[in-house]
Each structure stands twice: as structure tokens, then as C-alpha cells.
Design goal:
The complex is a heterodimer of chains A (about 475) and B (about 120). With about 475 residues, chain A is an alpha+beta fold. Chain A is built from 12 helices and 10 strands. In chain A, about 55% of the residues lie in helices and about 15% in strands. In chain A, strands 2-3-8-5-7-6 form a 6-stranded mixed beta barrel. In chain A, a hairpin with a 2-residue loop joins strand 2 and strand 3. Chain B has a 3-stranded antiparallel β-sheet with strand order 1-3-2. In chain B, helix 2 crosses helix 3 and helix 2 crosses helix 5. Classes of the chains: A alpha+beta (about 475), B mainly alpha (about 120). The interface between A and B is medium-sized, with 24 and 19 residues.
């Protein structure tokens, strides 16, 4: 009884082997296993046979993946041979699929970097909030003084062009006009000197890259005056490397001047920009107080705005029930509200997914045509005893190989397009320098897409071929 | 398929045992297993899956083949497949044996010299 159980176990294992292997060697292997079990038990008895029987069991288990691997290698060898025979078709299929994959991967990397990245060189970016739109300076001051849920609130005008003259050379540089607490609110480290923006005379902070490029990274410039818009301005500090202001994607800044400079230095401050409630020239960014949420802060600012209207006796505005203040995340490269992220991320992916789909469909058509042309070869193999499942696997192997080739092409294309994106950005100094790495997730994503599209494309023709056979 | 002898050397121990077993005449799988067991006084046992996996790989490498003629009737076990060495298999076996002999010779040579010293 026990012996039959053991033999049945080995037979069951033997049936798990690949079909073609079983067709040739299965019966012999089962018989050999059976004979071994019988002779061993007859000679040694159960107790002595236990260890060898377990070893035999392990042998059966461990050889199983090896046999499937051998079959896959054989499929792959055949597939490579066929691909070499039709290099043009193979190259066209791999290239079109590769372009589709590269657009998906590139977009994924780019959007991931641009939309989800934090502003460089700010402390705890997730605690920063930004007022949507712009505010007047008096309103900003009111918000700043009245809010409890926002511990620090700064305002700035951006983008502002400045003409910097140093060593006889004039150059236009983009910058921000900021409230003196700007660097403190953002938690931005100062690389050299100090962010002394509340001195009695005009002062400025340089970006690291402007300091490097224009002033040769010389510390001697600190405390010196430079002509900015024709007025003498003292350079007090250099911001941390990589910091291009609070909104580097929208308006990268290389020069930071305080709101206390007169309008002779910054014409943007003329015409009541600092005093008139009707001139909404300022972007407002703040840091949430510990424990406060963005929703709480928004509700609070809204209440402050309403009370302000009431105190001004603005009855017309009081009729308006709409929210006065909207907050969006302030520490991201793009000020996108969380609720818009899925839309923003999925739309381009969807578009590129469609491109990939079209590429996939054209490859599928090519394969379908080839499969039809190969029906003779497949019929011969079937009549030689190959199973239908085996032929489907063979066709899938060919497609997955093409998909992997396409995945490699796609990765190279995506990488080079991201490099050229960075190179183009570096030609435009008013933009932030943004290197978009091809991240590991994107690579895995691509490989997954490549294999999935391989199955999707290979599956169709294989099944069709399968159906044609059963008719 | 083109196979080169050098690509197969050194031969896997299991393959060497199987080639040796078949050098004495055509055999079926179980017979090969018994032959190896006897020749190594029970030390080397080719478990069934290893045996038939190796036979499959050796058929693909064209070291062995199924004989065109079945063995003489009294030895024939009709249930089983028989295997024989191919000409290529014989050459590979010879090359492997020569390689092992060279190896042994150099080991002996080293030993003699160190005992003389």
C-alpha cells in the first residue's frame, strides 16, 4: 500500500514534466523510478530507504525547472534563428514598439520628476503652502499678521528682470523681489554670506549659479556693491546650490532683492504695489504651523479675507459666497493640488499608451501575416508530435524576444530624449536646470510593458492560429 | 547543429558515467543506471530525473542516439528505449579520457618529484 503511494507520487511528478520531454522519456523515467523504488524497498526495507527516496524526490523536483528551462532555450534559439532570417521585419517591429515604449517611459520619468518633485533647497517642502493666484501687498500683510495656522508667510514678485552691471558688462538676469523673511520661510540654506534683506540700503542675494558664472565663485563679492538697474546694491549672500527661488519651474530666479529697495531699483514696486489693495502683484507662500493642515489654513485665510471685506464695508463683496483664498501645495516644482495629480499624471500616460497601442497593433499585424505564412511550418511541427501549447509557447517566445529588443531600444531612446531635454533647458538660463533621471521604476515599468505587450501581441496571433487549426 | 569537442570538455561527471556505460554496448536508461551503480560500487547513483534529463541533453548534443536496430531478442526489453554512442560521442569520450589521463599523469609526476626531494 505504502509502496504504491510512493510510486503514485513519483508518477504524478513525472507528469509535471514538459510534454515533449514526457513523450520521449516519460514512460522510461516513470518505469525507472518504479523499478528503483521496488528494488530498494525489497533489498533495504522502509527504514533504510527513506533517505534515498527523499533524495530521489528532490531530484525529480529540481530537474523540473531545468527541463522547462531547456525547452525555453530551445524555443529562444529557434526564435533567434527565425528573426535573423527576416531582419527587416524584426527590426521594423522592434523599432516601432521601441518608439512606443520610449514615449511612455520618457513621459513617465519627465512627469514624475517635474510634477512630483519637491522644490530644491527648501526645508520640509510638504509643509509649504501657496496662495493660488496673486495678492496685494496689504492683503498679504493682513494674512500674515492674522493667521494662526500659518507660522510664516512670505510674498514675492516674479519673474522680475534686472540689469546687472559688473566689470563693465551688462546682463539681464531674472529674479524675485521678496519680503525679507523669504529665505527663512522657505528654510533655504545660505551658501555664503547672509540673507540680509532688511538693511537700510539696497541689498541682494545671488543664486549659486549666477555667483559661479558671473562672479567666478569669488567670496570677495560679498559686501561689495554691484550696479542693478543702474543703482548700487550690496551683495550680502549666496543662496544654496540649486536654489532658483520658490517657483523654479514657473520663474527661476538668480537674484533676490527685498521689497524694501526703492522703486528706482525695482520699477515693479511703483504705482502703489506695496500700498494699494487693488494691485495684486505678489505671490504668497507660507509654512504651516506644526499640526495645522492645508484645509484648516485655507478656511482660516478665507475667514480673514471675509472679515477684511466687512471691516472695509465692502457690501457688494460680502454678497459673494465664493471662497476668497485657495491654497495649493507650495513645495512642489509645479503648484498642483493633490486632487489634480491623477488627472495630470494619467492624461499623458494615456496618450502615450495609445501610441504604444498603435505600435503594438502594427507589430501584431506583421506577426499575424508571418504566422499565416508559417502555417506550413507549424503544421509540420504539429504532425511531428509537437503539442499545440508548445507551438503557442514558441510563438509567444518569438514575440517576447521582439518585445525585449523593443524594450532595450525604448530605454535607449527615452534616456537620450531626457538627456536632450536637459541640454535644451541648459541653453535657457532663465529656466531651472533640471536633470531628469531615467528612474529605476521607469525601467521596471518599461520591461513590464515590453513583456506584457509581447504577450498581448503574441497571444492574438497564437490563439488565432490555434483556432484555425481546430477548425 | 555543429558541436565541437572542446566546448564539451571537461565533461560533466554524469555524462562521463553515461558515455562509459554505453561504451560497453547499447543500453536502456535503467540499464545505464545499474551499470553506473555497479561500476562505482554503489557510490554514484543517477536518479531517474537526472538520468533522463542528461540523456535528453546528450541526445541534443548528438553524443548518443537511439540505435536503428533493437538488440538481440533475448536481451530486448520492448518497453524501453535504447541508446548508443554516436561517432562524435566516442570521440568526446576519448578526448575526455585523454584529458583525465594527462591530469593524473601530472599529479603523479608532482608526487614522485616531491617524494624524491
Amino acid at each position: 500500500m505504502k509502496m504504491n503511494g510512493v510510486i503514485r507520487l513519483f508518477r504524478a511528478l513525472a507528469r509535471a514534466y514538459p510534454e515533449e520531454f514526457r513523450a520521449t522519456y516519460g514512460d522510461d523515467m516513470e518505469a525507472a523510478a518504479e523499478d528503483t523504488v521496488r528494488s530498494m524497498l525489497a533489498r533495504r526495507g522502509w527504514r533504510q530507504s527513506l533517505v534515498p527516496l527523499v533524495r530521489m524526490l528532490f531530484d525529480m523536483l529540481l530537474r523540473l525547472p531545468a527541463e522547462y528551462g531547456a525547452e525555453m532555450r530551445q524555443d529562444a534559439r529557434l526564435a533567434v534563428r527565425l528573426m535573423r532570417k527576416t531582419p527587416v521585419v524584426t527590426a521594423a517591429a522592434a523599432a516601432s514598439l521601441g518608439i512606443g515604449i520610449s514615449s511612455v517611459t520618457g513621459t513617465f520619468s519627465l512627469f514624475d520628476r517635474v510634477v512630483l518633485s519637491a522644490t530644491p533647497q527648501v526645508a520640509a517642502p510638504e509643509r509649504l503652502v501657496r496662495l493660488q493666484g496673486t495678492a496685494s501687498f496689504p492683503d498679504y500683510e493682513h494674512y500674515r499678521d492674522a493667521s494662526r495656522s500659518i507660522e510664516a508667510l512670505s510674498a514675492y514678485v516674479a519673474p522680475v528682470p534686472f540689469v546687472v552691471k559688473h566689470g563693465g558688462e551688462k546682463e539681464r538676469v531674472w529674479g524675485h523681489i521678496v519680503t525679507p523673511d523669504y529665505f527663512a520661510t522657505l528654510g533655504t540654506p545660505i551658501y555664503a554670506g547672509a540673507a540680509d534683506l532688511s538693511a537700510g540700503h539696497p541689498t541682494a542675494v545671488l543664486s549659486y549659479r549666477l555667483w559661479q558664472r558671473r562672479f567666478g565663485s569669488s567670496r570677495a563679492i560679498l559686501g561689495q556693491t554691484v550696479s542693478i538697474n543702474g543703482k548700487a546694491v550690496e551683495i550680502t549672500g549666496v543662496a544654496a546650490e540649486g536654489f532658483q527661488g520658490a517657483s523654479p519651474m514657473m520663474s527661476a530666479a538668480d537674484l533676490f532683492l527685498p521689497t524694501t529697495v526703492q522703486e528706482q531699483v525695482a520699477p515693479e514696486l511703483a504705482r502703489g504695489a506695496l500700498t494699494d489693495r487693488k494691485v495684486a502683484a505678489f505671490q504668497v507662500i507660507g509654512r504651516l504651523a506644526p499640526g495645522a493642515t492645508m484645509q484648516e489654513a485655507e478656511t482660516e485665510l478665507d475667514g480673514i479675507a471675509r472679515r477684511l471685506e466687512q471691516s472695509r464695508g465692502d457690501t457688494e463683496a460680502a454678497q459673494n459666497m465664493a471662497r476668497r483664498a485657495h491654497l495649493v501645495p507650495g513645495g512642489r516644482l509645479l503648484p498642483v493640488p493633490d486632487r489634480n495629480l491623477p488627472m495630470l499624471m494619467s492624461f499623458p500616460l494615456l496618450l502615450n499608451g495609445l501610441t504604444l497601442w498603435i505600435a503594438g497593433a502594427s507589430v501584431a499585424h506583421m506577426r499575424l501575416a508571418r504566422t499565416a505564412a508559417r502555417s506550413r511550418e507549424l503544421a509540420v511541427r504539429l504532425s511531428l508530435g509537437a503539442s499545440r501549447a508548445r507551438l503557442v509557447r514558441q510563438l509567444l517566445t518569438e514575440t517576447v524576444l521582439i518585445a525585449l529588443l523593443a524594450g532595450g531600444i525604448g530605454l535607449c531612446l527615452a534616456w537620450s530624449s531626457l538627456v536632450s531635454f536637459r541640454d535644451i533647458l541648459s541653453l535657457m538660463p532663465e529656466y531651472m536646470q533640471l536633470a531628469v533621471p531615467l528612474d529605476l521604476r521607469a525601467v521596471l515599468f518599461t520591461v513590464a510593458i515590453a513583456i506584457a505587450s509581447g504577450f498581448a501581441i503574441g497571444g492574438g496571433p497564437s490563439l488565432r492560429n490555434d483556432a484555425a487549426r481546430t477548425q | 547543429v555543429n558541436h565541437k569537442i572542446e566546448d564539451l570538455l571537461p565533461l560533466k561527471p554524469n555524462w562521463l558515467h553515461i558515455l562509459l556505460a554505453l561504451s560497453g554496448g547499447d543500453q536502456h536508461g535503467y540499464g545505464i543506471m545499474q551499470d553506473v551503480l555497479d561500476r562505482t560500487s554503489g557510490k554514484v547513483r543517477l536518479w531517474p530525473a537526472t538520468l533522463y534529463g542528461s540523456l535528453r541533453a546528450m541526445m541534443e548534443a548528438e553524443l548518443i542516439e537511439e540505435p536503428a536496430r533493437r538488440p538481440a531478442e533475448e536481451d530486448d526489453d520492448a518497453r524501453r528505449r535504447y541508446y548508443k554512442l554516436t561517432a562524435f560521442g566516442k570521440r568526446v569520450l576519448a578526448a575526455e579520457v585523454a584529458r583525465l589521463e594527462d591530469l593524473l599523469a601530472s599529479v603523479r609526476d608532482r608526487r614522485t618529484r616531491s617524494s624524491e626531494a
